[in-house]
Structures are given as C-alpha cells and as structure tokens.
C-alpha cells in the first residue's frame, strides 16, 4: 500500500491554513487588534462564517493584552479551556485558574441550586479585579459572572465568552452583547462556540503581547 498524498510539514500546514482563512474572509472589517483573534477563532473551528456572528468591544484585545502583561490571572470556566491555553504565549507566566473541580464547588452548587460551573464563579471574586475571564463551555458560568458583576463584584479587565450549546448559550451571549457591564468583551452569537474557540482567542491575544 502506497503512502496517501497529504501535506505533512507542520509549518506548511500552519501557513496554508491561515492563508486559506485570509483568502476566504475579509478580516479588514475588524479593528486591527482583533484580526489575529478572529483568525485563530476561525482556525479553531474550521468555520469561516463565524465572523458574521462575532460581537465585541473594539478595545478587547488591548484590554486583555495589557492585563496579561501586568500578570493578571486568567479564570477559565472548564478544564478544557484551561488546558488549551498555550502557556508559552503568556507574557508574565500568568496563573490559569479553573475552580470547577475545587472541592468546595459541589456543595456551593447544591446550596445555591445551580450548576457547578456557575457555582465556581463565586470562588473567583477575591481575585476577579483586573483578571481575564475565558468562558468556552458553560452558559451558566457566563450568566453567573454577569450576576456577580451586577451584585457589585470587582470587574475583570476583559471577558472572552463563547459558551456552546442548545440551552442558554445564545441567551447568555445576547445578554453580554446587550450589556457587558462596562467590561471589554468578545463573544460569538448563537449556539456555536466551545472551549477551543475561547482558548484560541486568548492565545491570539497572548501571542500578540510577545511579538
């Protein structure tokens, strides 16, 4: 059996992937600082049309980048987001925190009557001020974050929010788009999203701080 014909060189695959996206998507409609973010979000899911559903504060990349440079922690809503953050891109060796499996979380969730993802957000508040929040899985985590801010919690520097799913995902992203509570954000409307897209956005911002 002969070898199948396919591209094997990692650098060539990487270059051709981004070249294809740039050929198929007009990134110039976005602020310059957000173009690398959109590029990597598209690359993470293989869907060029998500650019139509991006919603953002024009200052999101600058705000998140400045926070990362100043050693801000990164809060992730799930282990998949935390694991997919490329540590070598982080400009200050930033701490990545996921409280989903914190031993306190199950009891909190039961007491509050919510998901573990939402309950975990309550464990962020002591260090939320100026942090970067990355939500890629749980709509309830995004709703809980917004409720926490409404209750007077200190604001993070930036929010990346692409929770995915059929229940609450579209609604939670509609809410942050309608009112981000004054926090720079980027989100993806509708049901689509996921941990890979959220972490890709964070990685793009972090990488830009090192170049």
Q: What class would the helix/strand composition place it in? A: alpha/beta
Tell me the radius of gyration: 17 Å
Helix content: 40-55%
SSE series = HHEHEHEHHEHEHEH
Number of strands: 6
The H-level CATH homologous superfamily, spelled out, is Cobalamin biosynthesis CobH/CbiC, precorrin-8X methylmutase
> Segments where pLDDT lies below 50 for 5+ residues?
none
Shape: globular
Sheet with most strands: strand arrangement: 1-6-5-4-2-3
Q: Could you say how many structural domains there are in total?
A: 1
Distance between the termini: 45 Å
Strand content: 5-15%
Name the CATH class. Alpha Beta
Mean pLDDT: 96
CATH-defined fold name: Rossmann fold
Largest sheet: 6 strands, mixed
Looking at the overall shape, the CATH architecture is 3-Layer(aba) Sandwich
Number of separate helices: 9
What key attributes describe this structure?
single chain; 211 residues; alpha/beta; Rossmann fold; six-stranded mixed β-sheet; 6 strands
Structure description:
This protein has a single domain (about 55-210), classed as Rossmann fold, CATH 3.40.50.10230. Helices cover about 45% and strands about 10% of the residues. The protein contains 9 helices and 6 strands. It has helices at about 10-25, 35-45, 60-70, 80-85, 105-110, 115-120, 140-150, 170-180, 195-210, and strands at about 55, 75, 95, 130-135, 160, 185-190. A 6-stranded mixed beta sheet has the order 1-6-5-4-2-3, sandwiched between helices. α8 links the parallel β5 (about 160) and β6 (about 185-190). The protein is globular, with a radius of gyration of 17 Å. The model has no long low-confidence stretch (mean pLDDT about 95).
